[in-house]
Each structure stands twice: as structure tokens, then as C-alpha cells.
Amino acid sequence: MLARRGGVYLAVVGTVAAVTVLSLTGVALRKSFNDRARLGAHTADAHRLARSAGELVIHQAVTDEDSFRKSAAAGVVFDGAELGQGSISATIRDADTDSTPTASTGRFAVVADATVGSARSRLGFTISEEEPPLTTMMRDLGAVAYWPMDEATGATVVSDPIGGHHGTYSDPDEAGFIDHPNGGEVPYYDWISDGATVPHHDDFLLAEGTLVFWVYVMQMPAATTTLGLVNKEENAWDDSPHLSVFVNDDAELVACLADKSRAGWQCEERNGITPQTWHHVAVSWGDALRLYIDGALVSTANAVKVGLASTGTTDPNTSDWHFGVRNKMRLLDQPSQPMNGSVCRVGLFDRAFSEKEIQELMGATGSKGPMAIEPGSFTRVTD
Length: 383
Fold this sequence. Notes:
The chain is an alpha+beta fold. It is about 25% helix and about 30% strand. The chain folds into two domains: about 35-130 and about 370-380, Pantoate--beta-alanine Ligase, Chain: A,domain 2, CATH 3.30.1300; about 135-365, Jelly Rolls.
């Protein structure tokens, strides 16, 4: 009798234990299921928040570029903003240098982060400006260098998007100061030391070439002075090779190209520049020195056979480029006065252009396109 009772007791205990185990297992399974479901929900929420953060950045870039650039300069649009159970942030870096964006940055790497519970989602993409038609044309025509000078006010770097030959502004407040008729904002130089400089590079040693640029002057120079527009010469009274384009006190636009032996000289056009009016200027060299104003050939110096490269009997021109200023030129004893104007959209080519090619460059739009997402730049990471 006792044996039977003991057996029943053991059976009951075993059953209870089995039920307990099953119950605990069920609880554990339900907890695991709930945890997975919660993580899945949090992950989905994190995805949505990261996407929303990215959309906010894109919206700002497309609709209000100035505000976007201010956010980019700070490196962040929003940082750790609380939203329900989660938080979001969006950071911005220069996509080319992986540094804090500056006024001259054209490509922006955006990272949008979202955290919900233990789930995290990260979305990355690149926003950039659509290339201006003039830049595309410069590239297609094989420019050695191109300086649009379309940086925003405060920029220190004069960017060359084609050749990578970057320069500097003497005063960051010069940049982005006035509107250009073909679109965009360009610098204005109003002091004798104002201007932009690009260091010499051997890519510039061109026996044949064309230089194109836009110019705006407020007024003609006073007697015995000049207005320096573009030059590649030393800031000293010396006999080094030089290239200089300037306006003299006879209201002549002058293009001068000579080596240190004084081989070569200049061509000019009286009243070629009208104050307070934008003009397109081109200078070509090789078999002759030619000057173009607003797409038309106005002067030719057939005797000028020198260029920027060494010919074996002449030294190469290794001076820096200067825009908006005039250095001391040995061939003309006239100092420079403040330009009170603008030089921009400067292109350099390794061949002499035809009049038609110069006219095509003159008509191209220089304004930047809207901000847009670069195709194929999207990446997503989920923790």
C-alpha cells in the first residue's frame, strides 16, 4: 500500500516538474519571441528615423542651400535629437577631404544615424552641386586649368575643378561678392592688394595656348597708372619672362607677352573695355599674339612668337598667376591702382582657339546647378 502511494507521489512530482519545465520553457520562448519582435520593431523604427533624418538633410540642401552650407560648416544638422523612444543625428563632411566642409566644398558626405532601444540604423549618401555648363565645356575642350572663382563669401581657396591647380584669395571677403550676368556670384577686388594667386606649375609651360576670362571694371585708371587684370610675372623690377593683361591710362586693353630678352611685345585695343560693363576677354599665343574682346578678334601681333615655355633660346615663365592685380612689369614703368572690379571664370588651354570656340565659351552658363544626391552613393548599416 505504501509502495503504491509512494509511486503515485513520485509520478505526481514528476508530472509537476515536467509541467514546470514546460512552463518555464514556454516563458523563455515567449520572452525570446517578444525580444525578437521588439528588436524587429525597433530596427524598423530606426530605419524610418534614419530615413527621415536623411530626408530632412536633403530637403534643406535642395530648398535652402545657404542654410545647408551653414549646417555643413558646423559639421552637423542635428545631433542626438530625441524623438519618442529614439534619437537621431545627421553629420556632414567634405566628401573629397573627409574634413569639415568649407565655403569652397562642392561634395558633401552625409551620415544620418538613428537609435531606438538597442537597434541602430545608419544611412550614408553624398550630396553635390550639379556642374555648371561652362565647367563642362571647359573640361570637354581640354582645359589645363579652370578657375571659376564662384566660391561663397569667406572662402580662402580658389578652386580648380579640372586641373586641380588651386590658389588663394588675398581676402576671403572678396569672394562671392557680386552677381555675374551668366549666373553665379564672383569676387570683387577693391583694394590694391586684393586679388587671387595660383602657384606656378609646369603644366602652365605652354608654347601655344589660350587664356580666357570675364572682367568687370568700375572705372578707367587714372593718369600714369594701370588696372591689372591677369598676369604671370614677378612682383619685382626684373627681366624675367612675363604675360600680362591690363588696362592702361589711354583706355586701352593691353595683352603683353615677352621673354626676358624682350622678344615679343603686345597687342591692344583702345576703348575695348567699357566701365561698369561685363566683358569676355581671350588671349591666344603660338604663331602670333591675338586679343579677343566679347568673342571678336580685335588685335593681332604677328611678330610675337614667344609663349610660356622655354624654346631653347628663351627661359620658361615660372611666375605665379595673379588675378585682379598687376605686378611690376619691366617693360612699362606704370604702377597699378586698385582694380575696383572683378576677374573670374579664368580658363587656360594648351592650344590657340578659334574665334568660334571663344564665342561658344562666352555664351556658356556659369551658374551652378541645384544640390542633388549622387547616384549610387547610398549605403545603409544596421546594428
